[in-house]
Design goal:
Layout: H1 3-35, H2 45-50, H3 54-70, H4 76-114, H5 116-119, H6 125-132, H7 140-149, H8 155-162, H9 169-204
Helix pairs in contact: 3-4, 4-8, 4-9, 7-9
Length: 205
């Protein structure tokens, strides 16, 4: 095993540890929001809590959203919902959107620069091969667009795969600028207001 392979495996292990820690932190955050802040009964509680530190909180959250895309092992769904709860629908959407867009662009450029070796830091060979087969199909761009709109798609992984394609950066940017706000809004509003809507529906029944 050469020096490059050793370093690559070491980085892969580091990112796996970061991924595990981020999942643990996400679980803790959910319990904190539900248990201590009672976010389910008072959706504005988090925004009231962070109101005194809005500027610092906004900058920190924006940076977090950029990082969680570039290092696609941090659960982005949790941070996206927290953004809406903490900063409201307008500022929350703004910070989520621009943070994710900038992170997506950096991720795309990194794959263009380092190729498969960068992707393999985060996914296994079989998983990469499975998605890579779609690159040769004529419908890949449509497939990519539909997944960027979908709130449940593995967006970060597909952005990395797209970095291996022939899609130009300009075309890629146009697609995510149009599509990502849709998936961000649907995902966030579902988790914030979906539970309340289901509760009202069941009570009405």
């Amino acid at each position: 095993m050469n020096k490059y392979s050793v370093n690559h495996e070491r980085l892969k292990k580091i990112f796996k540890v970061i991924g595990i820690l981020s999942i643990v932190f996400s679980v803790y955050l959910v319990f904190y929001l539900v248990g201590k802040i009672d976010i389910l009964n008072n959706p504005k509680a988090l925004s009231q809590l962070i109101g005194k530190h809005l500027l610092i909180g906004g900058i920190a959250f924006f940076g977090l959203q950029v990082i969680q895309v570039i290092i696609p092992i941090i659960p982005g769904g949790v941070t996206t919902v927290v953004g809406f709860l903490a900063f409201g629908p307008t500022l929350g959407l703004f910070l989520n959107f621009f943070g994710i867009i900038i992170g997506s662009c950096i991720l795309f450029i990194l794959v263009r620069r380092y190729g498969k070796s960068f992707i393999l830091l985060f996914v296994e060979d079989k998983q990469l091969e499975k998605h890579e087969k779609r690159l040769s199909t004529k419908t890949f761009e449509k497939f990519f667009i539909l997944n960027m709109i979908s709130p449940m798609a593995p967006a970060d992984l597909l952005i990395m795969i797209t970095g291996l394609s022939r899609i130009s950066f300009k075309r890629f940017l146009l697609i995510i600028v149009i599509c990502r706000p849709i998936s961000i809004a649907i995902y966030s509003y579902f988790w914030i207001y979906g539970g309340e809507a289901i509760k009202h529906f069941l009570m009405a029944s």
